[in-house]
Amino acid sequence: MPLAHTPTSRPAPLTGIIVFLLIAVIGLFYVKWFPYYNRAFVAQSHHSIGHSILMGDAAQAPTPSFQSALDYAWAYGKAIWQAMVLGLLLGSAVQELLPRRWIANVLGKTRFGSVAAGGLLSIPGMMCTCCAAPVVVGLRKSHASVGAALAFWLGNTILNPATLVFMGFVLGWQWTGLRLGLGLMMVFGIGYWVNRAVRPEEAQIATAQLDLSLADPDQAPSFSRWLKKLGSMTVRLIPEYIVLVLLLGAARAWLFPHVSPAIGNHLGWIVAMAIAGTVFVIPTAGEVPIIQAMLLLGMGVGPAGALLMTLAPISLPSLVMTRKAFPPRVIAGIVAAVVAIGVVSGLLAIALGF
After folding, report:
1. How many Å apart are CA 175 and CA 306, to the nearest integer?
2. Is the pTM of this model over 0.85?
């Protein structure tokens, strides 16, 4: 006599997809889309979206101290905590609720199509680099290619449509044009370059891991594994993230010296601001009031152009959070490329007469 079919506790694939989409759409609407829609009208009418989180109205960040670290971490945490929660939810859900074959088919190839898909999928996210990091980790664990995951990561910040609108109303539309032009090169160019640099043996290993994952019956959608994955990602990523934000909050006076006309359009200042911007961590669109405040204090457009392209896309905390998602040489290449594009941005701002 045949055994009766035992119901499984795993949801059907369609159920997992619907749950993921509900989290993404409702979460992004609440955390990003609706608040930024309203904020755009503020930027249009006031030509400002608030004070610089780096140093407020002062010409220099506070002296390094435990209190300055706490002050920055508190201000930064209030700005990003909801997006970080959403990032953790999506980063864990993408591993356990979406079919891995889908992710591999759309984002898992080394051709430009996967990079383009990763960059385009990032645009609705509008997350800061650290809040997007858990999703990037989830995509890589679900067999997205290095270039596609990187394009998704960089695109969240650099191609953020809300930030581009804020930038136009606050700084001027020439800055938006510069950001968009170089941003497209950064997101899709670096992503494609990274994918082309994948070694044949690495591609073979990735293919073998995908085949094993797809053949594993335990890889069917599972709400219980999703919750476990959410817990493990939170425990692994958040403590080190908090420590690094505190350290950068204390060190901001060293990274960004007293702002005045003395910080002019010299190559040395452009390179220094490009490096500082690459390392430092800010919330979404935080670069807009920072650059506005610095320009009003007399800083040259060259260093401002460098910060335009380096403050948002990556930071020391987000690099640490994603260190296991990318090979070390890719991390080094990303850092070098972002700094180089920042320098080019600064030089173009001078050449174009900003």
Report:
1. 11
2. yes
